[in-house]
Amino acid sequence: NAGVMQNPRHLVRRRGQEARLRCSPMKGHSHVYWYRQLPEEGLKFMVYLQKENIIDESGMPKERFSAEFPKEGPSILRIQQVVRGDSAAYFCASSGDRGAEQYFGPGTRLTVT
Amino acid sequence: LAKTTQPISMDSYEGQEVNITCSHNNIATNDYITWYQQFPSQGPRFIIQGYKTKVTNEVASLFIPADRKSSTLSLPRVSLSDTAVYYCLVVLNNAGNMLTFGGGTRLMVKP
Description:
The complex is a heterodimer of chains A (113) and B (111).
Chain A: E1 5-7, E2 10-13, E3 19-24, E4 31-37, E5 43-50, E6 53-56, E7 65-68, E8 75-79, E9 88-95, E10 103-104, E11 108-112
Chain B: E1 9-13, E2 18-23, E3 31-38, E4 45-50, E5 53-56, E6 61-64, E7 70-75, E8 84-92, E9 105-110
Parallel strand pairs in B: 1-9
Antiparallel strand pairs in B: 2-7, 3-4, 3-8, 5-6, 6-7, 8-9
């Protein structure tokens, strides 16, 4: 059973470009969570989605950031017009049920130049 | 959400037992204590979860006193591969969606 998969593992973008980060949850999991981790800090919650629905986006910046989890395909975290401050590791986690143990992917390291 | 406080870093040697204590003074009745481990360039990995007294699995033990205002993660006979950051979290069981990570404890195991 493959774990949570994220791609790309590393992404370099210039300021003003768009970044699209993909997350495929574990098989059978319909709950997806996105977290951001700055260097030397703990993970910060961004958004929680359950197939086609955003359940909690309280940790997501109001502008430039969006997330989706379509009926078919991976969850996408989209960052428009990236700035240097967006450089971070973005982790996706999935669970089989609300409140159940979350399994994390390897992360996508975004570097904005 | 209950805030957690844990040491920023700890050093140990191979073969020793390591105990990492976490304070969570305003933990709520329905909160559980959960520990995650994170290696460099990887996502966090669940280690253990408990509500009170003692929980043990193949990786670690978790000790929680009666007042639940603190907890101690115990790693028996650590090896170099246990060098990682360990996060103590307080989660609302069966209803929580976001996990709140603090700064964690950086454990360095030396030969």
